[in-house]
Write a structure and sequence with these properties.
alpha/beta, 9 strands, 22% helix, 37% strand, binds inosinic acid, binds magnesium ion
């Protein structure tokens, strides 16, 4: 099956929105230290770009959870496949994710991180697809709300491709 990618948010639009979120986080955490937890692999570009726009001290760390195979449907299973290096006890943690779909991945991850007793725990996502939500997760910072469409780019993949697109696109099957 062939697919085409239609632009949903251009590189400029994404950059602008990330700068806004970065400014907001910098304001909210004035005088504090943040541990930015990027979720591999999809959250890596968002986390990289966003942390560059945060002006308070940032410790960068990554965690990997798997929930999707090479298809556009959730398997309904999530597990931590690569853990953090940092001890987050007593620290301000901001989880940085590419997209929240059913919410299953984030729910498991947030429960896991909460047990490590951070000072605060916030969730920041580049995209939110609320129509698809199965598990309720509180989103503290959101880039864009989108309809139920499968998107790629800026870290997001279709069968592991397109993660490196500098914009966000919708996959259209021909
Ligand atoms: P959830 O547990 O269903 O919320 O799954 C979230 C994860 O599924 C995200 O971190 C993405 O890796 C993946 N995902 C969900 N929707 C899309 C999409 O439209 N494009 C690419 N990946 C997606
Ligand atoms: Mg992901």
């Amino acid at each position: 099956m062939n697919e085409r990618i239609r632009v949903m948010f251009s590189e400029q639009e994404v950059d602008k929105r990330i700068a806004e979120i970065g400014a907001q986080i910098s304001e909210d955490f004035k005088g504090e230290l943040i541990v930015a937890v990027g979720i591999l692999r999809g959250g890596v570009y968002f986390c990289s770009e966003l942390t560059k726009r945060i002006t308070v001290p940032v410790i960068l760390d990554f965690i990997e959870a798997s929930s999707y195979g090479d298809s556009t449907q959730s398997s309904g299973q999530v597990r931590i496949t690569k853990d953090l290096i940092e001890d987050i006890a007593g620290k301000n943690v901001i989880v940085m994710e590419d997209i929240i779909d059913t919410g299953r991945t984030l729910c498991l991850l947030l429960d896991n991180l909460r047990k490590r007793n951070p000072k605060s725990l916030k969730l920041c996502t580049l995209l939110d697809k609320p129509d698809r939500r199965i598990v309720d997760v509180p989103v503290d910072y959101n880039g864009f709300q989108i309809p139920d469409q499968f998107v790629v780019g800026y870290g997001m993949d279709y069968a592991q491709r397109y993660r490196n697109l500098p914009y966000i696109g919708v996959v259209e099957f021909e």
